[in-house]
Design goal:
Number of domains: 2
Distance between the termini: 30 Å
Shape: globular
Mean pLDDT: 94
CATH topology of the largest domain: Aminopeptidase
CATH architecture of the largest domain: 3-Layer(aba) Sandwich
Low-confidence stretches: 241-247
Structural class: alpha+beta
Length: 247
Amino acid sequence: MTPLERQRLATCAVWRLDADSRDDGAWTDLGGLQLHATGLPVPWWNGAHLTSPDGLAHLPAAAAWFRERGLPWGLLVPAELDVEPPGGSWVTDHPVMMRGLSGLPPAEDVALRGDAADDAAAVQAVGFDTTPNLSRDFVLPKTRGAACRLVVGYVGGEPVATATLVQVDGVAGVYGVAALPEHRRRGLGRAVTLAVLHAAADDGCDLAFLNPSPMAHGVYASLGFVDDLPWRVWSVADALPQGDVQP
């Protein structure tokens, strides 16, 4: 299996684990199309991952599944499949970077905690421009799963940076890397990212991936991450029938 194939499988597995950790979470596989819902009204926190071109036939059922839950959603298509959903509108490409976990740069000397989910949620709320309550509702349930870890970096006793690690079948997904605006460009995002990478390597993972923002791309490249094919994000709900279609 290629690293990219492992990344695709791990991404889908991460979202299934996420859904399983939530009281209002849900997940299903329609055959070539895996759906996950967090129960939160944010489109990029609910989605359908296409795993086979055959899954496009199930888009009406997917739309009904999300409509039943009252949730916005998007379709994520691996670029290597080279298919477009009928009537869909391309929204963006969700970038992917990967690296092996041998030969990591040394961990950096930053005060860290791994038991402060509330602080992680507070930093993410500012870093990703969402409300504190919504950030808490997204972040805190993740800690119920043994595969997930949160790391928070501190300066002067105050939480200023965070990263989330989810491990699946030897693959480490790095998510939720954020730093408070006044503490950016000081190496703190790099430090918390290195912390979770070392934790993953210590646990036996041999591959890591993340989905960089343009602002952070250079930081991850300096850590040895390289670009691979993205997920293509499509909006399809408006192009699908609105009747009662059951998954």
